[in-house]
Amino acid sequence: MIRLLPILLLLGFGLSACGGGGSTIPTGAAGDDSGATAANGGASGAGGTSTTGIGADGGIDVTRMEPGQGDGPLSRLVIYFDFDRSEIRSDFSDMLRAHGAFLADNGERAVRLEGHADERGSREYNIGLGEQRAQAVRRVLMLQGASGNQLATVSYGEERPAALGSDENSYSLNRRVELVYR
After folding, report:
1. What is the edge-to-edge ordering of all strands in the sheet holding 111-116?
2. CATH classification at residue 181
3. Domain end: 18, 49, 75, which one?
4. What range does the domain containing 142 cover?
5. Same domain for 93 and 172?
6. Which of 11, 69, 74, 112 is the most buried (most CB within 10 A)?
7. Is the same domain home to 68 and 104?
8. Using CA atoms, how far apart are residues 132 and 125, in angstroms rounded to an integer?
9. Whole-angstrom Cα distance, residue 86 to residue 118?
10. Is the four-CA dihedral 179, 34, 81, 139 of positive or negative sign?
11. Is residue 81 a contact partner of residue 128, using CB atoms and an 8 Å limit?
12. How many CB atoms lie within 10 A of CB 21?
């Protein structure tokens, strides 16, 4: 029985890595971070190595990826939030799983989680909301294997908008946490 335990654990881990099935965001939608694609053209890195982030078994493969490059879940560096909320939407599950696995496998790497809010609400409220959003992302990354010393949080509130404007499209782009690798 003791000999079977490691095999069962590995089998369970492998099956859990294949799950997920979060929804995808169409190009141009508020959750699309198409500006973070690599200069190398996306689908292949140096020497033809795939950077899609999906391994041959369908699981997330972070061994051949760099955050912000390629076209897989690790290429996305922005998490968007609903109005006045700090709960992480399910469409960012695969992305955060990939970043957590990357950080777990690369202990020397660190990331700053920058929380933001749209212009509605007081300055103080938006600073607090940006911090709540950054902390929510931090918790998820730690659950995925990142260590606390790899993660720093900061809140800019409404002070650094991604989009200028007072319309819902601009607001949706400003309600975010950006992952800034150092």
Report:
1. 78-80, 176-181, 111-116, 151-157
2. 3.30.1330.60
3. 75
4. 77-182
5. yes
6. 74
7. no
8. 11
9. 13
10. negative
11. no
12. 8
For tokens 């991604």, the residue is 162
Pair 91, 66 in one domain? no
3-state secondary structure (DSSP) of residue 61: coil
**pTM passes above 0.85:** no
Paired tokens of 172: 């949706």
CA 11 remoteness from chain centre: 26
Quick: pLDDT tens for 4-15.
444 444 444 343
Of 75, 92, 124, the position where a domain reaches its end is 75
Q: Give 144's Cβ-side CA count (13 Å radius).
A: 24
Buried b / exposed e along 96-132 (16+ C-beta atoms within 10 A): bbbbbbbbbebeeebbebbbbbbbeeeeeebbbbbbb
Tens of pLDDT, residue by residue over 115-162, are 999 999 999 999 999 999 999 999 999 999 999 999 999 999 999 999
Q: What are phi and psi of 98, to 5 degrees?
A: -65, -45
